[in-house]
Design goal:
The complex is a heterodimer of chains A (378) and B (290). Chain A has 13 helices and 19 strands. In chain A, strands 1, 8, 9, 10, 11, 12 and 13 form a 7-stranded antiparallel sheet that branches. Chain A has a 4-stranded antiparallel sheet with strand order 2-7-3-4, with helices on one face. In chain A, strands 15-17-18-19 form a 4-stranded parallel sheet, sandwiched between helices. With 378 residues, chain A is α+β, with helices and mostly antiparallel strands. Chain B has 2 domains: 113 residues, NAD(P)-binding Rossmann-like Domain (Rossmann fold); 150 residues, 3-Layer(aba) Sandwich (Rossmann fold). In chain B, the strands form 2 sheets. Chain B has a 7-stranded mixed sheet with strand order 3-4-2-1-5-6-7, with helices on both faces. A 7-stranded mixed sheet of chain B has the order 9-8-11-10-12-13-14, with helices on both faces. Chain B starts with 9 loop residues before the first strand and ends with a helix. With 290 residues, chain B is α/β, with parallel strands linked by helices. The interface between A and B is large, with 54 and 61 residues.
Chain lengths: 378, 290
């Protein structure tokens, strides 16, 4: 789950990281009022969960409250990469002398978090990472010990940070680690961390991504979720504990297990079809879950066929079959369905479905070929 | 011979009184696995499976009383990392964690702690282990595989079942099937298992089932080139997955141009591994190699 800039920076501030004075506004009127309170120049920043906001015109500098109001009016009408701007952050404008990058993420290859820093911070950090990766300093963090003070100092030295800033930089790095750890983040990033004209350090922009699996212990953070970034069907799916991603094809897929679900998509493509979704009903899928999954798939008007691919392990074939029958009682549909049911209690499942009007298949390849054929109207 | 589990496995089930724990303990016992104990804090002294398996309050007590040497974990995600620590501290040699959805920072702490101890973790978020005809420690349906000489290692669950079943349909048997799990941080990786298969006299060929995300398959390819004399066939799931989207498994996500299926396939093919276009082709590829 991604947090907005203003949410990330509020968290940073809680852990002692200096951020610009500012507040979030939902209307241009509010933006004007905040600009008046702050006095002087302000930055109006669209709050949408995509990169490249600045280049899209979603971050603008206002010299007066009146200008803040008119810019906020414009920005609040924008769509950036398909996402509507519903809020703007109004921050006191900083005098920027230098931009630094500082971030923490999980490095799965070494199974530890890693803190990264670069003296070449700012909007082009991804380009820096691609073209001159040596300009990015990386330091692994032991998950049981946390970030050590000497590691923060080493980083400060490596990015040529003037000595006078080391102490505050250490506090900022430690604060970022604490924010990352305490929120179960998978990414906590300050970009840029600015050396201001007043020779102080300031986190001008921030980004956090949280681990969805850990949200159960952070109810206050899960409330921050922005539903605009997800399709309605994906939100609905999450309510039932289904893992669903909408795609552009016309063959709906209902599969148990992520690997098998991806494979079902792959094999549909291999035989010339296009999957309409990724859907993992998970382990131990109940009839209620299966029924919800079917409704979600059928809510997509593009769907011309549905492929059920269930290999029983934790999930029991009879339960899945009962779910399909229950769903078909609620939802009248003439979309053809191909089913392949193998594994735990599959026999019983097949018996339950014997009277339902479904196309059966023995193998995955056969199931995919049949689904592709019926989707094409064959 | 087989790897990791066999007839001598003395299994303890953490979370034995839960729905899934009980269901799969019944299945494992029916398969012939020697299930010696269960653990559910607060239920010590009870018996399950018609009085055949004693339940203890802690792993330590269960190990002392029964001499269990392997644990399987069916504990809910929020308590699962603690269950792994408990099993490791009680001195078990092998811990198999089935639980899905453990927070990744929990797993980093677990893994870094376990690295200092002489214990092997398989999983989490995995289907466990199956040595056909001898022992099942996990949730893989027992009747979809027969004993034989193919070693199977996989990051996936149900996809693996499909491959086992396809092997069985053509009469090919399995030495051991190891589900290493789909999480970004796990206990055992491809390389660990490939090394064990190379050493195992029963295993004559190997199937590797990978998926998008991370670079474990690429590292497995390097290892195969340097250390494996036995033929390997592979399948990589997620060739058509859109980038930046999390495909169910925390591990199955394509991040910023890395972890792509195409790169993994290229790396494996470069070291003479036959990569199947779809999983049901695997038996055919293996037969060609022998």
């Amino acid at each position: 789950m991604k947090l907005h800039e203003y949410q990330s920076k509020q968290l940073f501030s809680k852990y002692g990281i200096p951020i610009p004075r500012g507040r979030v506004a939902a209307t241009a009127q509010e933006a004007k009022q905040i600009a008046e309170e702050l006095g002087g120049r302000v930055v109006i920043k669209s709050q949408v969960l995509v990169g490249g906001r600045g280049k899209a015109g979603g971050i603008r500098l206002a010299k007066s409250p009146a200008e803040a109001e008119s810019l906020a009016t414009q920005i609040l009408r924008m769509d950036i990469k398909g996402l509507p701007v519903r809020k703007v952050l109004v921050d006191e404008a900083a005098n920027i002398n230098k931009e630094i990058y500082l971030g923490i993420t999980n490095d799965r290859s070494i199974r530890r978090p890693i803190i990264m820093a670069s003296s070449a911070g700012g909007v082009d950090i991804e380009e820096v990472a691609r073209v001159s990766p040596e300009k990015i300093i990386r330091e692994p963090i032991h998950p049981l010990l946390g970030l050590r003070d000497y590691q923060a100092r080493d980083i400060a030295v490596a990015i040529d940070l003037p000595r006078e800033h080391w102490k505050v930089f250490g506090q900022i790095a430690r604060g970022l680690w604490q924010a990352y750890q305490a929120s179960d983040a998978t990414l906590a990033e300050i970009n840029p961390l600015v050396i201001t004209g007043e020779n102080t350090l300031l986190a001008v922009d921030g980004k956090m991504v949280l681990d969805d699996n850990a949200l159960f212990r952070h109810p206050e953070l899960s409330e921050m979720r922005d539903l605009d970034v997800e399709a309605d069907s994906e939100i609905e799916a999450r309510k039932y504990g289904l893992s669903f991603i909408k795609l552009d094809g016309n063959i709906g897929c209902m599969v148990n297990g992520a690997g098998l679900a991806m494979t079902s998509m792959d094999i549909i493509k291999l035989f010339g079809g296009e999957p309409a979704n990724f859907l993992d009903i998970g382990g131990g899928a109940s009839a209620e879950k299966v029924s919800a999954a079917l409704r979600i798939i059928l809510s997509d008007p593009n769907v011309r066929a549905i492929l059920f691919n269930v290999f029983g392990g934790i999930t029991r074939g009879d339960e899945v079959a009962r779910g399909i029958l229950a769903a078909l009682q609620d939802i009248r549909t003439d979309v053809p369905m191909v089913i392949r049911l193998v594994g735990t209690n599959a026999e019983e499942g097949r018996r339950i479905l014997a009277d339902a009007n479904m196309i059966t298949a023995e193998t995955l390849a056969e199931a995919a070929q049949k689904a592709v054929a019926v989707a094409k109207g064959a | 011979m087989s790897i990791l589990i066999n007839k001598n496995t003395r299994l303890l089930v953490q979370g034995i009184t839960g729905n899934e724990g009980l269901f799969h303990t019944t299945q494992m016992k029916a398969y012939g696995t020697n299930v010696v104990a269960g653990v559910t804090p607060g239920k010590g002294g009870e018996w399950v499976l018609e009085g055949k398996v004693p339940v203890f309050d802690s792993v330590k007590f269960a190990v002392e009383a029964t001499g269990a040497n392997t644990s399987i974990i069916f504990v809910p995600a929020r308590f699962a990392s603690d269950a792994i620590f408990e099993a490791a501290d009680a001195g078990l040699e092998l811990i198999v964690c089935i639980t899905e959805g453990i927070p990744v920072q929990d797993m980093m702490r677990v893994r870094n702690y376990l690295d200092q101890k002489n214990v092997r973790l398989v999983g989490p978020n995995c289907p466990g282990l199956l040595t056909p005809g001898e022992s099942k420690v996990g949730i893989i349906p027992g009747d979809i595989a027969i004993p034989g000489n193919v070693g199977v290692v996989s990051r996936s669950g149900t996809l693996t079942y499909g491959v086992l079943y396809a092997l069985k349909l053509v009469g090919m048997g399995v030495s051991t099937c190891v589900g290493i799990g789909g999480d970004p941080i796990n206990g055992t990786n491809f390389i660990d298992v490939l090394g064990m298969f190379e050493e195992d006299p029963q295993t004559e060929m190997v199937v590797l089932i990978g998926e998008i995300g991370g670079s474990d398959e690429e590292r497995a390819a390097e290892f195969i080139a340097d250390h494996l004399t036995k033929p390997v066939a592979a399948f990589i799931a997620g060739q058509t997955a859109p980038p930046g989207k999390r495909m169910g498994h925390a591990g199955a996500i394509v991040e910023g141009g890395s972890g792509l299926a195409a790169d993994k396939i290229r790396a494996l093919e470069a070291v003479a591994v036959h990569v199947a276009q779809h999983p049901e082709q695997i038996p055919e590829l293996l037969m060609k190699r022998v």
